[in-house]
Amino acid sequence: MAGLGLFEHYKRFMAILWPEEIENRWSDLMLKEYLQNILTSVMGCKDSTKTRTMSKIALADYYCFPFTTLCLVSSTDIRGLEMRIWGDIKSLHTVAQERFPFLAGNMIDSKHAICTDNLDEDGVRDMRRGLITIPCLSSNGQFTGIAKWVGIKQKRRRLFGDEFSIMRSGMLDALANLNSGDFKGMFVGNPLGDGDPLDKLAEPKGGWASIAEPEKTTVWDTRDIGGRCINLVGTDSPNFDYPQNEPPRFPFMIHQGSIDRVVARYGLNSFQYYSQCKGVRITGMDAFRVITRALCIQFQAMEQVFWMNETRTKVYAIDAAYGNIGGDRCVGGWIEFGRDVTGKMILRVDMPVIIPVKPAKMAGQIPEDQIAAYVRDACMNENIPAGNVFYDATGRGSLGTSFARLWSADVNPVEFGGNPTERPVTSETMIRDHKTGEMRLMMAKERFSKFVSELWWSVRYVIESGQMRELPEDVMIELSRRLWRPVRGDKIELETKSEMKERTGESPDLADWCCVAVEGARRLGFQIARMSIDEPSRNGKPRLLDTLRQEQNKRAAARQLTYK
Fold it and tell me: According to the model, what pLDDT value does residue 545 have?
């Protein structure tokens, strides 16, 4: 402690390093809380300079103690590192060293790292002193985390987590191992509010119910010792500190114009508005998620199944992607259904895999042939016939041709972009027919705007019926992140894949795979209990659903063509 204190010293130091960087009260608040606490969570709106500010803090802290400091910087994948925090760190470090060549740090772009040591005579350097960025998702989309780094010894250890709200729960296990001695951590992201790592780290000491929805930028103590959370509220942006009839003082930060664009497209009550513009956590937004973690836990979707000793049916599903175009993963894997020891029809989900797809020039095969050959071999190993294989055929008609040439034409396409079916929504969802005035079962085409919405709700109904078991954690997380909205005609529509990518930074490839698998199981005879309308009669008299089913069958038969 000297002079004006540590905060003023660091703030002045950073201003000398990067005088062209414009500071504001949000960046000051992040620096102050980081210096005062062990664990600092920052949840907030888009364009709040969370990542940029954290990059400057990490470099400044490292420059002060380069021989005793190890900074671990995590993000989603290599692309995420390059586009976000590693890109910021590289540019800031280059500028700082050009201005002050004596600053420590040898940048090794191939390793996405800055090391204090130069190469020794043997061409080796100590990687335990410096700043190391770590992608937590592998190139094939599997979560790897930072577990291999947690045992490294260094006097000063720092962990900076970018996009922490879309990490997996394993990140918190690694954090528990690192949190001892001279340790600090800072974690930033947009609020998702579904039990993600940032959501857990930012939870107030008295629980989420203990605080009201923030209208202004707010800071509170968290459940962790030495933990604090900063909530940067977009409608309280530093841009609103100045007259609104002038251009935004900080054009790179959220301002009224960027808020108006989101409101015009999604509305004030949308998840996009709360997450991207206000940047606050709204528990009630769970109502706009197709599937939630709480739903999966309540109906035991992730628990082990105990089978009855009988034959089960396996279904192989594919959510295809060709050479990671658009960043999507090519997902494949199988599920099985049969009766458990209680006699209930159960669907068990096996852990899917990422099908390796290389550019045609490297593999000597077009991507469609690579996928078809991989699936053929995997199905033969599991004794799954071609007729039990289903794939997302939206814009992928050529994949069926590859299957027919390399294996069989019996594989089944599932067109995500098609229209909803005439299957009943559930056995309990009734409407009054506007033509006959009679009550009947609501059909999927009357409830959903698109077939993809029907597919996702089918997964939900399997879970709600207590018929899903051993759902992998990664699949559950992706299923729980997709939102829906009411549209014209009182129908349900999923947010688009591009909207979800923009909001979460992830494509729901695992979740889409699960939807294809469930649809395949239904076509092969799996019945969702909530959609079953075959109920026993009572006292020899037909029950209401029996009567409605008979009337529906008569109407359907009247519209069928007669072949001679």
Answer: 57
From CA 538, how far away is CA 552, in angstroms rounded? 20
Say if CB 474 and CB 143 are below 8 A apart. yes
pTM summary value: 0.67
Q: Which long-range contacts (CB under 8 A, 24 or more apart) does 79-86 make?
A: 79/327, 80/135, 80/137, 80/162, 80/163, 80/505, 81/112, 81/133, 81/135, 84/51, 84/162, 84/163, 85/51, 85/54, 85/55, 85/133, 85/160, 85/162, 86/112, 86/133
pLDDT of residue 559: 64
Cβ atoms of 133 and 85 closer than 8 Å:
yes
Under 8 Å between Cβ of 141 and 354: yes
Place of tokens 């103590």: 221
**Tokens (6 digits) for 83:** 């586009």
Q: E-assigned strands of 434-552?
A: 439-441, 468-469, 484-487, 491-494
Question: Residue written as tokens 């099908």?
Answer: 355
User: Burial, 423: exposed, middle or buried (Cβ in 10 Å; 0-12, 13-18, 19+)?
Assistant: middle
| Residue owning tokens 């959501």 | 199
Nearest to 317 by CA among 46, 135, 520: 520
Residue 545: which of 536, 554, 533 has the closest Cα? 533
b/e sequence 397-419, b meaning 16+ C-beta within 10 Å: eebbebbeebbeeebbbbebeee
- pLDDT beneath 70, residues of the chain: 1, 120-124, 138-143, 194, 283-287, 323-327, 395-397, 505, 530-553, 555-564
Q: Which positions ≥6 away from 241 have C-beta within 8 Å?
A: 25, 249
In the prediction, which pLDDT does 64 show? 95
Tens of pLDDT along 340-363?
A: 999 999 999 999 999 988 887 777
CA-closest candidate to residue 375, choices 353, 350, 348: 353
Q: 424 forms bridges with which residues in the sheet?
A: 443
The per-residue pLDDT for range 216-239, each reduced to its tens digit, is 999 999 998 889 999 999 999 999
Under 8 Å between Cβ of 41 and 198: yes
Distance CA 81, CA 87 (A): 7
φ, ψ dihedrals at 356, nearest 5° = -70, 125
The dihedral region occupied by 409, where left means phi > 0, alpha psi between -120 and 50, and beta the remainder, is alpha
Q: Give the rounded distance of the alpha carbon of 276 from its chain centre.
A: 15
pLDDT of residue 120: 63
Phi, psi dihedral angles at 526 (to 5 degrees): -70, 130
Closest C-alpha among 181, 213, 472, 197 to residue 349: 472
pLDDT value of position 407: 95
**Residue whose pair of structure tokens reads 């800072």 in the numeric block:** 186
Question: How do 439-441 and 313-319 pair as beta strands?
Answer: unpaired
